[in-house]
Amino acid sequence: MLKNRFLLIPFFIFFIALGIDRILMLETIQTYFTKTVSEINFFHKPYLFNELKTYLAQKDRKKVLVIMGNSRGLLFDNKYIETKYPDWILFNFSVPGGGPDYFLFWLEKFQRDNVKPDFILVDSSLEFYNLTPIIKLDESLVNGLEVNFVLRYINRYSKSEISNFFSKKLFKTYQYRPKLSVILQRSKNNFAILNSYREWRKQVFEKLIAERGSASSEFYKNKTQTDEIISKYAVGDTNSYLTPFVFNEDILKFQRDNLIILKELGVPSAFIMVRVATPFFNFYKTKLTAKDSNGISVSPYSLYLPKMEQLSNEFQIPFLNMNDDPSYTCNAFTDASHMASECFPDYTDFIFNHIYKESKL
User: I need a surface site. Which of 111, 118, 180, 186 has the fewest CB within 10 A?
Assistant: First the structure.
């Protein structure tokens, strides 16, 4: 037995490395080298879920709209909703990189706890249905999903996604990659940058709580870019997310499961393709980066749209396509994929016009 103790050395090394990783990721330490606050959106959602359940249990409450989306659905202005739609309140479950698997993760919890808001809107962005993008949209997989969920649906993920998930779940420093240059920079001038970054993270979390998941108010306002800049973004996003394009049937299965739960909950609902900038949408329809079942080159949109319409017909849940709807006209964008904050009142009106039209609420 003594002779075989050396076999335990890899295990000791592993647990020591794991312990060091956990220490480095403590809030007081990781702020020396992390560069993003986007993961705070994911940290907030369990708080939001509990707040939603508490609110729904109140006797005298407003009607509740739940939105499950990605970064295209973060900038809703609650003050605007309170003013124009005073009978409604928004709980926003949108997160950066949120896709159908992340929405299923939460909708399963809704079903388990019998959480029934008055309307649920689920995003269905085209980019998430690409199996082979240059840049993988994996933020919600890594930051938002629990291990038991991923294991239950492991056959719907690629080997690289599973490897990436467990690597970054086990070792957060693999995800955030501490760099000495960043640490030294934040240590200058009596830690001025470090303290500012920590305060920023604190404010982001407090705002998410106050705004029930929306990144609204003057605190988050973005600006509208010129048509020239938007066109350049459109080229870059097409190359990053739609070239080449292979339709991901497993993501479609997640969205199908979402619609099943929505029907079983009996909650009025819809799923939506949020508006993107016109040059980017044109690339959706004209760039022949995909192939159909006969091997003929086609556009990503020509594969995507019939499948969304089929889901809508099958489950009798409306599919809202803001890009092909002439009633929506606001075209202010901060990049090719994201409407500027000045368009969110129009975006809000678009949603509520549908709610009033379809559900008679």
Answer: 180
